[in-house]
Amino acid sequence: MNAGRSASPVVGIVGLHGAYGRWLRRFFEERMGLRVVGHDPAGDDTLPPHELVRRADVLIFSAPIRRTPELIREYVALADGAEDGRLWMDVTSTKHAPVAELLRSRAEVVGLHPMTAPPKTPTLKGRVMAVCPARVEAWREWLDGFLSMTEAECVTVEPSEHDRAMALVQGLVHAAHMAQADVIRDFAPALGGLERLRPLRTVGYELDLTVTERILSGNPAIYEDIQFENPHVLPALDRFAEAIDFLRTRVRQADDDARREMRSRLLDANAAFFGAPALADGSHGFERLGYLLADLESPDYLSVFLPEDHPGSLRALLAVFEHRGINLASIHSSRTPDGELHFRIGLDRAQVRAMPAEEIAALIAAIQAEGIGRVLSGRGLQRT
Ligand SMILES: NC(=O)c1ccc[n+]([C@@H]2O[C@H](COP(=O)([O-])OP(=O)(O)OC[C@H]3O[C@@H](n4cnc5c(N)ncnc54)[C@H](O)[C@@H]3O)[C@@H](O)[C@H]2O)c1
Ligand SMILES: O=C(O)C(=O)C[C@]1(C(=O)O)C=C[C@@H](O)C=C1
Questions:
Q1: Which residues of the chain have pLDDT under 50?
Q2: pLDDT value for 2
Q3: pLDDT for residue 194
Q4: Does residue 157 have its Cβ closer than 6 Å to ligand 1?
Q5: Which of 194, 225, 294, 355 sits between 20 and 30 A of 46, alpha carbons compared?
Q6: How many Cβ atoms from other residues are within 10 Å of residue 118's Cβ?
């Protein structure tokens, strides 16, 4: 079979019932209209591996990072050449080891790394995906179509270069936040816990805490394997520990020399490395995120889902506020925790406080009654 010419290949997923396996299944079935089969020891509705290898024109490995290289090796042995003409891919967070194993097969090979947890949205729009097209010929056109349908920002990269970059992008970032969590866990209780620290937050603390909480709420196996399975992470950790140690010894030394050395190495030299344009951009970005966090923190808002996704629907929504003489403090397009797109309309606090409950109820009713939108939530405003 020359499956490379098939416009509607059967897609096989190794790890069908995992977080990414489920997301991929939905994507291939619903967005691409393809038949999906798979294997996963966590489910009893899946094909045995030998049957999966026989049926799948496109086979994707979406299994635990630590297990994936040996798993691919098992599948290569199992397929025993039957994979010739097929496309084998993986979505592992490391790329060198899985792609090297995939290349032992006779299949065409593409390594992928969607740089996000499986999103609640049906595509990877707004997210980066690393792509390692290690051996692609007949499947090129299908691959291009698939990648474009993911709507991801695809970045082509060599597997080793990817892993070296991920030691900084993931290994170092995760390590720094896990270590921060460890220190906070030790020191915060004496200060009354996280709840007592929160009112004293800076934008930097809030941003860091958001990253830390995301990591700690994720799949622990992923964060463990990213540290242990990427050989480029350990040198980055050594260097990180050395930088912290440098700072610690200077702070302990506490004289003018120590201050000079700290400033020279950790601030001046690093600022020169990043360069003035990057620092100006980053600093502005920090301020914008600060304003965004402040808007999101404000209790006087309405979140409105606009079912009519067409030009003018936002204007119709805003007209409801305008007709009632209600000032808007902010407006953001955002997503609910379930991933539903909505507009979050921030309102002037003093005006809201002065509004009788009936007026607020009438405002919400007007938005819903005219079929403009569905009010999802509104802290502060929903006193009715
Ligand atoms: N979750 C993320 O944030 C994320 C982001 C990008 C890439 N990835 C990559 O996606 C892959 C899967 O991650 P996940 O988050 O879905 O993990 P997961 O633990 O939710 O899913 C892994 C699945 O693999 C199954 N599995 C285990 N051994 C298997 C075997 N021998 N054969 C078939 N299936 C087997 C497990 O039962 C499980 O259902 C990983 O390689 C990970 O690096 C994950
Ligand atoms: O939680 C998210 O959305 C993530 O970005 C998860 C994250 C990460 O934190 O680096 C974790 C593992 C994947 O390889 C990609 C991204």
A1: 1-3, 382-384
A2: 46
A3: 97
A4: no
A5: 225
A6: 18
Ligand 2 centre to CA of 133 (Å) is 21
As given in the structure block, the two tokens for residue 279 are 């620092």
Q: Which ligand is nearest to the CA of 167?
A: 2
CB-based contacts of 22, cutoff 8 Å, min separation 6: 16, 118
Is the Cβ atom of 67 under 6 angstroms away from ligand 1? Answer: yes
Pocket of ligand 2 (CB under 6 A): 93, 115-117, 170, 214, 218, 222
Task: Write down the pLDDT at residue 5.
Answer: 54
Q: What pLDDT score does 364 carry? A: 86
pLDDT for res 309: 65
pLDDT in tens, 297-311: 888 888 888 876 677
What integer pLDDT is reported at residue 359 of this predicted model?
86
The tokens of 183 are what?
Answer: 């220190």
Do residues 61 and 83 make contact, with C-beta atoms less than 8 angstroms apart? no
| C-beta of residue 64 within 8 angstroms of C-beta of residue 221 | yes
Distance 225 CA to ligand 1 centre (A): 11
Torsional sign, CA 168, 171, 173, 176: negative
Cα(17) to ligand 1 centroid in Å equals 8
Whole-number Å distance between alpha carbons of 106 and 71:
16
Q: Could you tell me the distance, in angstroms and rounded to a whole number, from the CA of residue 221 to the centre of ligand 1?
A: 9
In whole angstroms, what is the distance from residue 40 CA to residue 58 CA? Answer: 16
* pLDDT confidence of residue 203: 96
149 token code pair: 């349908």
Which tokens hold the place of 204? 């930097």
ipTM: 0.99
Ligand nearest to the CA of 39: 1
Which residue has its alpha carbon closest to ligand 2 atom 10? 170
Ligand 1 mean position, distance from CA 58 (Å): 17
Q: Is the Cβ atom of 114 under 6 angstroms away from ligand 1?
A: yes
pLDDT tens string 11-24: 999 999 999 999 99
